[in-house]
Amino acid sequence: MTAITATGRFAPVFSGMGRSRWISPVTFLVLWEIASRSGIIPQRTLAAPSAVLTTLLQMIASGELPGNLAVSALRVISGLTIGVTIGLILALVSGLSRAGEVTVDPLMQIKRTIPTLALTPLFIVWFGIGETPKIALIAFASIFPIYLNLYSGIRAVDVRLIEGARSFGLSRFELIWHVILPGALPSLLVGLRYSLSVAILVLVVAEQINASAGLGYLINNARDFMRTDIIVVCLMVYAVLGLGADWLVRIIEQRALVWRPSNVAS
How many angstroms from the chain centroid is the CA of residue 100? Predict the structure, then answer.
C-alpha cells in the first residue's frame, strides 16, 4: 500500500520537474530570438536562433557539415586511441609495481603541470602544420586523466579482497585480472569520461593550426566573413560531440558495471 501511494504521489512530481527543466532554456532562446530580430543584438554580433537553425539545415543538406565533422571526429578518435593506450600502460606499470611508481609517477606529475596548449608552438616545430600536431596535442592531453584515475583505482582496491584472493591460491596474473582490474574499472571509466571531455576541448584549439578541413576550419572561415551563424552551428556540434562521447561511456559503464548496487537497483 505504501509503495503504491509513494509511486502515485511522486511520479507526477518527477514528471513535472522534468517539464520545468525546459522552461529556462526555452525562455532563453525566445529572448535571444526577440533581441536579434529587434536589433538589440546585431546580426554581425550574434545570429538569431532561427538563422542558426536555417544555416544548420543548409550545411547538412550541402554535405559541408557532415564532411568536416568526419574529419574532426577522426582527429579525436586517433588522438584518444593513442593517449588512452599510453595512459593505460603507464597506469598499470605505476599502479602494479613500486619500481614502476618511482619511475613513472614523477614524470606524469611533471606532465600534469605543463599546460597542453602551451606545447602547440613546439609541436608545430616538431611535426609541422599537418595532421600530426593536431592528433599529438589531443593524445598528449588525454593521457593524464586516464593515468591518474586508473592508478588511483588500482591503489584503492580493498586490501582484504587481495588477501582473500591470495588465500585461494591465485597467481599474480590471476590476482590482477580477476580482482585488481575489476576493482579499478569504475575509476578507469571516470578517467575515460574526463579524457573524452579534454579531447573535445583540445580539438577546438588544435583545429586552429592551419586546418584545411574540420569544424575549426569552418569556424576560421566564418570568422573572416563575420558569419556568426556558422560559428554557433560549429559550437553546437562541438557540444553534441562532447555529450555523445559522455553518453557512450555511460552505456559502457552500465554494461561493464552491472554488479554495482546502483545499476542493479535501477
Answer: 28
Instruction: Check the CA dihedral 55-61-63-69 and report its sign.
Output: positive
User: What digits encode the pLDDT tens for the residues 135-183?
Assistant: 999 999 999 999 999 998 888 887 787 777 777 777 778 788 878 888 8
Alpha-carbon span 132 to 237, nearest angstrom:
23
CB atoms within 10 A of CB 89: 14
Q: Residue 141 corresponds to which cell in the numbers above?
A: 592531453
Tell me 56's DSSP state: H
Closest to 246 (Cα-Cα) out of 204, 205, 189, 208: 189
Cell of 240: 553534441
pTM equals 0.77
- What's the chain's Rg over C-alpha atoms? 24
